[in-house]
Each structure stands twice: as structure tokens, then as C-alpha cells.
Predict the structure of tRNA dimethylallyltransferase.
Amino acid sequence: MPFHQPTLICVVGPTAIGKTKLAIELANAFNTEIISADSRQFFKEMNIGTAVPSAEELTAAPHHFIQNKTIFEPYSVGDFETEALQLLDKLFARKNTVIMVGGSGLYLDAVTKGLDNFPKIPLQIREQLNFELEENGLESLQKELEEKDASYYKKVDIQNPHRVIRALEVIRTSGKPYSSFLNQEKKERPFKTVYVGLTADREKVYERINKRVDLMMETGLLKEVEKLESHKGLNALQTVGYRELFNHLEGKLTLDEAVSEIKKNTRRFAKRQNTWFKKNESIIWFDYTVNASKIIETIKSKNTL
């Protein structure tokens, strides 16, 4: 039974929980296509370390925004919002339902609710922050963010210099906490949104993360990172799985230490994902072991409009 109005089904949850598998099952059940909102999977040069869907998964259902960009092309959440909404217009002309999947909460919210309005950043503030990062390292910027906006500090990926600098740009420009600009009045969208979340106890999530990292290493993550080392300063590569192995290649960590850091930082990332998604009271949560047919039944029962 189709929905009475265009409906976007968002599949959310922490990394390694099984979102891709569920999204494919939903796409097949609703005869539709999938939009990836995983900001790490946009880039064609990054494959193993971003856990992009396999060739079999990509043929099991039509996917969009998978390895469609290059790391050499600046690409922001605002760009994604614009392109995803344009694609949704086209898909909703043919389909009544579309699936969106990903663990990047900001990118999902940009499509479903719209981005918050931030002040324009003077170039000198941006340049000063980049200079401080180069001279003093990330830790001093992390400390400033914690002092000036403890709320945002607790949920942002503080190991990502781009995210830390972005928050400090706004703070130094406005004199207000970055978090005060979040959750402003949201934009109306011409579609209904249904949120489905996968969850598991913390130990199980951590176990799945550790297994995934081990599999990444077995399938050649180090070689992938070696090929990208000369471009390690690019924003797209400031992410878990790549930073740690760059440090290994620079002699700062042994390989075992780097792998251990990847696991630790991925676990921290999963914790921040959970913090982000738990704020959304519209999400219908399911244990990751639940059969997809039950989830499909529940979604269809929400078709009351």
C-alpha cells in the first residue's frame, strides 16, 4: 500500500549497525531507490575506510551519492542539501517513497529540516584559526571549544579539525556559542519523513565496530591510505581510519597502535551518533536483530495520512 503523500524513510543509527542492509530491504519492499547521507561515502578515492556498500549491495537497489565526488572538490553539507532536494524532486515524480540512509546526522537533518543560519565568517578569522592549528596543534583549539561551548564540544567529532575550526569560526565571529545557532526554526518540506533507527547495546556495537576495522585492514585499508598520503591535508581525509594511518606512515604510531586508535575513535564516533539521534523523538527504534518484515509492517502502519 503506497503512502498517501511523498514519504522519505530515513534509516539511522550508529556505524556498523546494519543500516545498509536494512535500507536495501526497505527499497525493495517499497520498490524505490536509496539516497546515501553518509558524508564519508561521497568520495570515489575513499572505499575501504568508509565501508561503502559492496558491488552486490549497489546492484540490489539503486543508490545515489555513493562515490560521486572527488576528494579534490570542496563539498559542504549545504551542497548536499541542495543536490539531495533536487534529486528528491525527480524521484518523487516517479516514486511515492524514497529511502535515505546514513550515520551523518547533520546531513540527514539538512535534507529533512533545513540548515541553520550562521553568520558570515571573515576571511581573517578563518586564516587565523588555520594558522593556530598549524602552529599549536588541534588540542589548543579543542580546549577553546570546550571552554566556550561545552554543549557542542560534547557531541562534535573533536578529532576532526574541520568541525572544530568551523565551530570556533562562528564563536569568534558572533561572540555566541556555536550551539546557539543550532535548532532554529526548521523549513517546511514537501514530503513526510518517517525515521527508523537500529540499535544495540553498547558492547555489541563496539564488537561490531572492532570486527569491521579488522576486516578493513584485511582487505587493504593501509594500501588505500598509502595511495592518499600525499593528499592528507585535504578536508575529506580528516576522518577516522585515515588520520590514524597517516600518523602511522609518519612514524608517530606503530601499525598496531594505529589500528587500536581507529577502533577507539570509531567507538567515540558511534557514541556521538547515538547522542545526536536520541534527541530526535520521531525515530522508531528497533533492535538490530529484528527481521526487516516487522520494520516494514510498522512503517506501513504509520501510513495514516
User: Anything to note?
Assistant: Strands lie at 7-12, 34-36, 63-64, 97-101, 192-199, 283-287.
